[in-house]
Amino acid sequence: MEFPSSWDNSNPHAHDVYNRCKKYYSSGDEDKFVNVFKPSIFSRFICGELMNYIVISVILILIKKKAYVKMNCNITLLLLFSFGALLSVIIFYFRRVLYFDFPCFVIPYSNAISLPLCIFSSAGIIISYLKQCYNNASLYNKHYNEDKLRNYKRGYLHKVCFHFSEKYLIKLTLIFITMSLLYVTFFTMGEYNYTIYPSSQGFCTLNYELAPGWLLLIVFLFGFLPMAIHDFYMFRGNFSFIRTLSATLISSFLMVTIYVVTVNINKYTCSSISRYFPSEFFMIMFFFIFYITHITVPLIESYIVNKHVNRLELTKKGLYKVFDDELLYKEFFEYAVKKRSVEYALFHVEYVEFKNLFKFKIGINTNVDDSSSDILQSPTSPTTTMSLPFLSSPISTISPSNFLTSAIPAISPTSPSTTTNVMSKKLLQTYEQIYTKATDIFEKYFKEDSELELNLPGKLVKSVTNSYYDYTIYYNRYVVNGTGEHEIDMNKIDCETLFDDVHEEAMDSLFLNVYSSFAKDKKKVLEKKSSHDNLA
Q1: What digits encode the pLDDT tens for the residues 399-452?
Q2: Among residues 297, 312, 327, which one ends one of the domains?
Q3: Measured CA distances, 523 to 306, 312, 336, 517, 520 (Å)
Q4: CA-CA distance, 25 to 151, in Å (whole number)?
Q5: Burial 125-162 (b: 16+ CB within 10 A, else e)
Q6: Per-residue model confidence as pLDDT tens digits over 460-499
């Protein structure tokens, strides 16, 4: 077969393609050979549909952000994956459509950005699901002091999940992208395979420039995916959505493997089948599979759950009643473990304990023995201040647990100020309990890498964090380390509403993810039992 007359004879890349493929064609097959590199309607249609799908998905993620968060989805990583996938598909589409004129320097630069975004974010999303499984298994064992889910420690990614943080993953992604861009720039300046000015166009055959992306892809394919498949298989039957995720990982492994194999086989890239199913088609299928599993399915599940809620006429009152029944709560707790949402149930329990500390309000009744006495000020009450002249002992010499009580001077029973001082003492002890509980809840449910860290909107976490730090700074400065020179603004140490918004989000998540399915299954059991009794 002769060199195609329609090709640019002065383009060295065109000769590279010709020399690589000519042995698979006979004399007179010029037209057949040239048609291989012209995009088919099918491949253009697939690319166009995926681009539309990605754009629509991003819009849905932004519109239905709360629904995705309540379904335990990681919004940030989904958006990063979307951007990387969209960039990859756009470059692939125009590279096929403009095969004979596409500027070659665009490919390595776009690849250095899009591939790390896709690989790191998809790995992060998978690790997020695995982390939920590991944490819920660990919490189940600790809660019941048993080893029912003991296999979870045998997972290959157990330690990775334990130390996983979205913030560090994003930093790692940015570092890898920066290094890849520097690497590509080095080869671009050396003009090994292409030039920017004048721009090398068409028949782009690149080798060394794509090395960082290929290295990352190989590690993801033959290192990360097999370990993730093993770990998900280890949890089979213990958690919901595991079978779907396992099937997704296996399908992703097959699609990426086929891409890696076909893109390096000349016989395939030179054959007519590559016109309809180019190697990049299998990466597109990987994107499709990932999108369906992590974006479409959660949205459909959210719709189905809301439909069930309306049909069964479920309310949150029923959810609250579950926590009041010991036997029912145990069943619900195990159900929450399967749904990877047990941390929300535990948060509710601790939230109730926290709120119970505020059952007293500051009032005019000074009878401290009366359980109905008001000890804490209501958030809606007028500003109250309190002077602490007796808090003068050095904090470094007294432990926090006994500081507030030991700093109170001894009072004679006959003293006219006995009631007031005892009132102050009890007030301070109560505030110390509140401070300790608030700190405990914050460190358990809001600190990164915490086993009980809640999946919450970023704005809500930031708001609670800022309010908590303002509260603790004021408390430590004027109550714990106070010298009595400043009066204390009681409103600033009254943190009763600190976790209210978070609790509402947590109960919404429990209601949609766990209670709706739990109530549905319980209803089925009751109906089945009733039917059996009627037959008997």
Answers
A1: 333 334 333 333 344 444 444 444 467 777 888 888 899 999 999 888 877 778
A2: 312
A3: 17, 9, 17, 10, 5
A4: 56
A5: bbbbbbbbbbbbbbbbbeeeeeeebeebeebebbebbe
A6: 888 999 999 998 888 888 777 765 566 777 777 788 889 9
pLDDT at residue number 475: 84
Residues 518, 495: Cα–Cα separation, whole Å: 33
**Tokens found for residue 368:** 């401290």
Amino acid at 290: F
121 lies in the same domain as 242: yes
CA 43/CA 422 separation, integer angstroms: 81
Q: Which of 312, 339, 363 finishes a domain?
A: 312
Q: Check whether residue 417 and residue 398 sit in a common domain.
A: yes
CB contact at 8 A, 450 and 444: yes
Q: Please provide residue 316's backbone torsions phi and psi, each rounded to the nearest 5 degrees.
A: -70, -20
Residue 489: beta bridge partners? 385
Instruction: Let me know whether 414 and 435 are in one domain.
Output: yes
Q: Which two tokens stand for residue 417?
A: 């100020």
Question: Residue 55 is encoded by which pair of tokens?
Answer: 């754009």
CA distance 508 to 128: 20
Task: Take residue 101 and report the two structure tokens written for it.
Answer: 């004129």
Locus of tokens 């069964």 = 312
- Are the CB atoms for 123 and 197 separated by under 8 Å? no
The answer on 427 and 455 residing in a single domain is yes
Nearest to 244 by CA among 289, 288, 282: 289
What is the average pLDDT across 310-337? 79
pTM, to two decimals: 0.72
pLDDT (0 to 100) of residue 392? 34
| Strand blocks (E) in 281-405 | 385-386
What is the pLDDT confidence band of residue 527, given thresholds at 50, 70 and 90? Answer: low
> In this structure, are residues 339 and 394 in contact, taking their beta carbons and an 8 Å threshold?
no
Cα torsion for 132, 135, 137, 141, to the nearest 10°?
-160
Q: Is 117 exposed, middle or buried (0-12, 13-18, 19+ CB in 10 A)?
A: buried
Q: Which residues pair with 103 in a beta bridge?
A: 201
